[in-house]
Amino acid sequence: MQLLTMRFKFPQFFVVLLMIGALTLGGCASNITSSSASPTATATSDTTTSAKTVSETISESVPGIKSLPRLEGKATVVMTVKRGEVVNPTQIEMEIDGTNAPITGGNFVDLVQKGVYDGLVFHRVVREPQPFVVQGGDPQGKDPKFPESRLGTGGYINPQIKTERRIPLEIKPKGAKDPIYSKTITEKPVLQHKQGAIAMARSQSPDSASSQFYFALADLSFLDGNYAVFGNVTKGFEVVNKIQQGDRIESAKVTKGAENLKTAQ
Question: Considering its fold, how many domains does the chain have in total?
Fold first, then answer.
């Protein structure tokens, strides 16, 4: 039995590499150094180190963190999805965990309340060679004429200052009081890539997440510590499982916990 287990480890490893490679190249179709946002499991010595906790990073190494929305507690978001030729839209209910991911959760809830996700397309769906992710949230996808090959390169542009909002990588290790910012970690995080997890997509830079997010279609523990999980699907995972590339978010609404969102005055 042990020999059989060993024989299957290597193929599984190569399957994972193929999935990651497909995502990375797909997001960089227009430019290999673009600000594309796709999950990758590569952690380097430059980013995987011990880092400062929130009390230190707010005043020091994360510029602009005080101006970002924060979710102090939890919130419920209901996303209505229009799937291809299906007449009746279907819904996904998700819990956003601001207790363990206050900046990441706050960013998502704030964008939901602003209507940023309404009408956006799911531009990347990876189910082969095995279930991986469903990714959406690129504001450029609202325009049906926008080139499909360039989807995955955009983020939320603040209309007041005309710049893209980017948030720091935020991961809370198990047993820690506060999240760690701007660094990948090797410790086990509180919020993990279990099936149905919701996380922020980003490029290789740890602080490059903006509006793009993805649903985990399976347990993806190899992404833990590298990407910021901020919630999970509580109802309607069967809807997520049926999403196809090109399906759209009809609407996203905060149905509970909106009072937990705090924005800079």
Answer: 1
Distance of CA 137 to the CA centre of its chain: 9
The parent domain of residue 173 ranges over 2-262
Per-residue pLDDT tens over the stretch 97-146? 999 999 999 999 999 999 999 999 999 999 999 999 999 999 999 998 99
**35 contact partners, CB below 8 Å, separation of at least 6:** 153, 155, 203, 208
- C-alpha 264/C-alpha 256 separation (Å) is 21
Number of CB atoms found within 10 A of residue 164's CB = 15
Which pTM value belongs to this model? 0.82
Q: In this structure, what CATH number is given to the domain that contains residue 74?
A: 2.40.100.10
Distance from C-alpha of 8 to C-alpha of 25, rounded to nearest angstrom: 26
> Which residues are bridge partners to 248 per DSSP?
82, 121
Half-sphere exposure of 197 toward its Cβ, with a 13 Å CA cutoff?
Answer: 24
How high is the mean pLDDT of the chain? Answer: 84
In the beta sheet, which residues pair with residue 91? Answer: 80
